[in-house]
From TrEMBL:
It is found in: Cell membrane. The chain crosses the membrane at residues 26-47, 67-89, 110-133, 139-167, 179-199, 205-229, 263-282, 302-323, 335-355, 375-393, 405-428, 434-454. InterPro entries: MATE_fam, MdtK-like, Membrane_Transporter-Flippase. It comes from Alkalidesulfovibrio alkalitolerans DSM 16529. It comes from the Bacteria. Keywords: Cell membrane, Membrane, Transmembrane, Transmembrane helix, Transport. This is MATE efflux family protein. It is a multi-pass membrane protein. GO terms for molecular function: antiporter activity; xenobiotic transmembrane transporter activity. The keyword Membrane applies.
Length: 484
């Protein structure tokens, strides 16, 4: 039973109320558009990978090598957005809509500032990052041709994430879905336009090669900034705000940083983990690097529903924690886990059976196909473990308990791989397949830890929130003594 007093203000798109509507209906309404959006986001990257392959295998390998570096942008954007979504969602769930609106404004300002720093730092550090991954000469030049423009326009990625955070906190995952669908379709036309160039009358676009893939991406991002800004304005959340609400405020920035930094570090640990895997497989040659890059794209497509379910768990947990509806928090966790495990079981069968065919969609290189198929057939058994991890981490972030994500991320992405991969490749001198089996074991051990420890943290957060609300409404001050 909720301990909150007063009416709950409906939020979200249409008449969707995240604190009262049936959980299963809300999970579908939030997760389905988010999953579709992430599918087209992944297909955006797949399109880039395919066009790079039309240039050369070296260009395709360069994009694969760029992914862990590009993940720095994704980590910062996703992390800050996750923290902002949790903060806004709890304010909306508690009926404090104006406070939620001010947090959205501060999130946009924070995102713009952080994005600017990322752009500057990324451009300066890119040569060193790629050199540390073993890129040199022509290989290094191709990597930089792609990533330098991406870093220069990195601020747009971060701002888009913040627009989406404010929409997502209201249960609106459709707006970002629409942008990602349109962006993917535009990218299909823009990639060849910028790669090969065109001259039609006064229109002249020079042939840019691999750099053209980056400029196509930035063109789509610029359109996304405009579109999502309009969608957020139409949601009404920012209504009544004045320019002063967008001026950086220490308390709001500290709150966003407090929630967003752990989530950013969690996402960053994923990027570092990809970097570590790439570092260990790089000695096996650029064929292995290209195979890993393509195979992970396939894996990401199958995992998309679990990411959408994580979005649903985040939004539902945040608003229902704010509203004091703790049984709905538990129900959200159960529903998202059940849905995810069912979907990933089917996805595992598809990946295992059609591994060669899926790899063949992106490359004709027989060696790359064979190496990637071996990876996919092993990692098919890890898909359900990723669901367990994503859903528990998202629920804890929605409950404003983001630190668990850091610790499990450090273990799963950095500490365990460094130890296990070193043993497998250096001590036992196993083949590359040994690394793939190591990833499987690390994922499932981490999922077990998330189930046991994560649920304890979530229950403790709900108990503390319930005790705090009891103290706020009781007339007996002594009853609050010693409460969390």
């Amino acid at each position: 039973m909720s301990l909150r007093t007063g009416a709950v203000v409906p939020t979200g798109e249409g008449d969707m109320d995240l604190t009262r509507d049936p959980i299963w209906r809300l999970v579908r309404a939030i997760a389905a558009p988010a999953s579709v959006g992430f599918f087209f986001h992944t297909m955006f990257n797949v399109v880039d990978t395919w066009f790079a392959g039309q240039i050369s295998t070296l260009a395709q390998a360069a994009l694969s090598l760029s992914f862990p570096v590009f993940f720095l942008v994704i980590a910062l954007g996703n992390g800050l957005a996750t923290g902002t979504t949790a903060l806004i969602g709890q304010e909306l769930g508690a009926g404090r809509r104006q406070d939620g609106a001010r947090l959205a404004a501060q999130g946009l300002t924070f995102g713009l500032l952080a994005g600017a720093l990322l752009s500057i730092g990324g451009v300066l550090a890119a040569p060193m990052l790629f050199a540390s991954l073993g890129a040199a000469d022509e290989y290094l030049g191709i990597c930089l041709a792609y990533m330098l423009p991406i870093f220069a326009g990195g601020w747009m990625f971060i701002v888009i994430y913040q627009f989406n955070a404010a929409l997502q906190a209201q249960g609106d995952t459709r707006s970002n879905r629409n942008f990602l669908i349109l962006g993917c379709l535009l990218n299909v036309g823009l990639d060849p336009l910028f790669i090969y160039g065109v001259s039609i009358g006064p229109l002249h676009v020079p042939a840019m090669g691999v750099a053209g893939i980056a400029w196509a991406t930035l063109t789509v991002q610029a359109m996304g900034v405009v579109y999502l800004a309009r969608r957020l304005r139409r949601s009404g959340l920012l209504g009544g705000l004045v320019p002063a609400d967008f001026v950086p405020r220490r308390t709001a920035m500290a709150a966003i940083l407090g929630q967003g930094l752990p989530a950013t570090l969690n996402y960053l640990s994923i990027g570092i983990g990809i970097y570590i895997i790439t570092w260990f497989i790089a000695p096996y040659g650029h064929v292995s690097v290209a195979a890993y890059g393509i195979a992970t794209r396939v894996e990401q497509i199958v995992l998309l529903p679990s990411i959408g379910l994580g979005v649903a768990a985040l939004a539902l947990t945040a608003q229902n924690m704010g509203a004091g509806r703790f049984e709905r928090v538990r129900e959200s966790l159960r529903a998202t886990l059940a849905a995810g495990l069912s979907i990933m079981t089917a996805g595992a069968v598809v990946i295992y059976v059609f591994a060669h065919e899926l790899m063949g969609l992106f490359t004709a290189d027989a060696e790359v196909i064979a190496a990637g198929a071996r990876y996919l057939r092993i990692e098919a058994f890890a898909l359900a473990g990723y669901v367990v991890l994503y859903v528990h981490i998202s629920s804890l972030q929605g409950a404003k308990r983001p630190m668990f994500a850091i610790w499990i991320g450090l273990f799963r992405q950095i500490i365990a791989p460094l130890i296990v991969f070193s043993l497998v490749t250096r001590v036992f001198d196993a083949s590359l397949v040994g690394v793939w089996w190591s990833i499987l074991g690390i994922v499932w051990f981490s999922a077990l830890v998330a189930t046991i420890v994560g649920r304890r943290i979530l229950e403790r957060a709900m108990a503390q929130a319930e005790a705090a609300v009891s103290c706020s409404v009781t007339v007996d001050v002594k009853a609050c003594e010693g409460s969390p």
